[in-house]
Every structure is written in structure tokens, then in C-alpha cells.
Amino acid sequence: MFDEDVIRHYQEHLEHRRQIRPTDEYRDTTADEWTEFEEHFDRRKVGLGSCGRPYGIPCQHEHACIRCPLLHVNPRMLAGLSELEADLLHETQRRAQRPAVHLGIPARRRPQESD
Description:
Blueprint: H1 4-20, H2 31-43, E1 45-46, E2 49-51, E3 71-73, H3 78-97
Antiparallel strand pairs: 1-2, 2-3
């Protein structure tokens, strides 16, 4: 379910920290703590790939992943990203070609210059 290298690396990191610190500062990870750690990686999965935010850090961009510098785009999603870009460019061009719509808001009068 989770990348085994990530789990193994995390466990090795914990073991190394435990060796260099006093033993009374560390305890075994509880089931709840481990579940929270694993769920973090589930929450990182997004439509275009995965989020690179560190463990325990909430997302600041709420549904704006495409603009986030922490987005790791899955190479298989590059075609979809190109399609999204083309759609956005097409929509921008379409909006630019639409005629201006008068909303009934009066224009501000400018003082006339005297001759």
C-alpha cells in the first residue's frame, strides 16, 4: 500500500536517532501514531501526482495543487497536464473574442474642458 522504501527509511531514521539519544527520551511508536503517519501519504495523493509537503505540515493551497511548488507531477500525467494547458489557452482566447457586455452601470462623467 505504501512505498516500502519510505517506510524502511523512516524506521532506519528512527533507529539511528534512538542510538544517539538517551533511551529514556524515546519509546515505540503507537498504532495511532503509525496510522496517522501512513494517512499523511494518502492525503498527499492528488490528481496530477503527489504533494511534496513534509509530514505534519497542512496544505496551504487547498485545491490549487497545479500552482503549488511542492507538486510532484507523475510522468504518466504529463499528457493530461498538456491537455489542461491547451483547454485553458483555448478558453482564454475564447473570452478575449467575446464582445463587451454593457451591464447598465453608468460611466463616470468627466468634466468638460471649456473652449
